[in-house]
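S.,

Sequence below, as promised.
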Amino acid sequence: MPMQTLLLRSLLILCVSCFSLLAKGQDARFAQFYAAPLELNPAMLGVFEGQFRFVANYRSLYSSILDNRPYRTISASFDMRHRIMSGDYFALGFSAQRDDAGLSRFNHTQVNLGGSFLKQLGGSGYRASDQYLVAGAQVGLGQRGLTYDQLWFSQQFRTGPNTAFIDTEADNGESFSEDNTGLYLDFNAGLLWYATFDKNASIYLGGAMYHINSPNVATLVDGDAKLYSRWVVHGGGELPMGDNLSLLPAVLVMKQGPSFSTNAGANFRYTRRDWQELALRAGLWAHLSNQGESMGVDAVIFAAILELERWNLGFSYDITTSTLATSNNSRGAFEISMIYTHREKSRYRINCPKF
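The prediction came back faster than expected:
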């Protein structure tokens, strides 16, 4: 392989696979943020129309560059709600997430236990109109690590007259002592307000703070690498556009350390309003982030969701629009989501927005 080609490819892979290390502990994100409720806001605990809910999400990013070692994020959660007095509820939930980034296998494992209180501000559980204020919090354990022997360093780089290669058998000149951090304690909290006006009309606004205690996630002994706190603001609703059609716009704004991220867009929802409801959603979203000193759109996201009574099955694909599109041919990420909601007894029914 010509030296220039090898150098360019090696530098590209190194930059992508080491991004998480340079970012000083940024959280993974989902394009379908509305389908990952407990990763979005602890106050989303219990905000669903049912007795209990199970959610699973999977995201794969940059497989066009990193082949079988892309960025992968997997999460799962379970939450259930219980009525404590007329119109008010509390909810408990559990969530787990695993994130692996590139060739270094830089990974993040997080497990959270949370609770929320849903206070009715107006309306009645027996009518379509309802208004709630929800406060939620999570306490969790996390661990981060990476696989050093999957990385190469400048001391292992060799050149010849017209070639360049990496000598993986050579000493890398580094002195690593730990592959993982110890378990660290983590705290998250959030608020959510929502109002429902009809079966297909609602509005909501929420905010949350993750990693309130800024835990130390350094893998080096006596190292100091604080995990940046992440604040979240999100909102949206459902706008009726006829008997069978509605629009679900939403926006998510996040900031963590120097990184700023925004998702905005909308899904159209079509339903026949049958007794056992079947509905289809499809929409277009944009992801904006800070790129140097300016903001730019780095991905356009196509999403589709199938609703089958108790199930929501979602698929989305990110098309890269940043300068990285030259290297990955605009092939960004694909993502799938699954939500199962167990039906509530009608007398304990609570009206919630569609997300």
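The first helix runs from residue 3 to 17.

Coffee later?
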